[in-house]
Amino acid sequence: MKLKKTAILLVNLGSPDSPNPFSVFKYLTEFLTDKRVIDFPFFKRQALVRGIIVPSRFQNTAKSYSSVWSSKGGPLLQHSYLLKEALQKKMPQVIIEIAMRYQKPSIAKALESLKKQNLDEIIVLPLY
After folding, report:
1. What does the mean pLDDT of the chain come to?
2. For the chain, which end, N or C, has fewer CB atoms within 10 Å of the first or last residue's CB respectively?
3. All domains in the chain, ordered by first residue
4. What is the pTM of this model?
5. H helices within the chain, ranges in order?
6. Distance of CA 37 to the CA centre of its chain
């Protein structure tokens, strides 16, 4: 009997690519303009996020990210990779990938990579 070739895609919320203000601005804008995050009509949500929330929060948020950032990246990404490594040790026959809903590594890129591996099954595991 042939074993299924399986992958698990661990999906987390995401974080900025770096703690610099530009990256934090970009991340907050992408995250907060999602209609599933702020359930307002499109134009009201855009005005609120782009006109008030992000401009007033991104500098302080960047400082907060800087205080927890390391050479390996932000805590969420670091912990996601540690989880991937731990799962890979427990299940060496399964391909484990990580992706973030917002920013990088993106879900689209992870799925593109997995698609090339001729899998029988992809299990998507949201971590949020």
Report:
1. 96
2. N
3. 1-16+71-128 (3.40.50.1400), 19-68 (no CATH)
4. 0.88
5. 21-32, 42-48, 54-68, 75-90, 107-115
6. 15
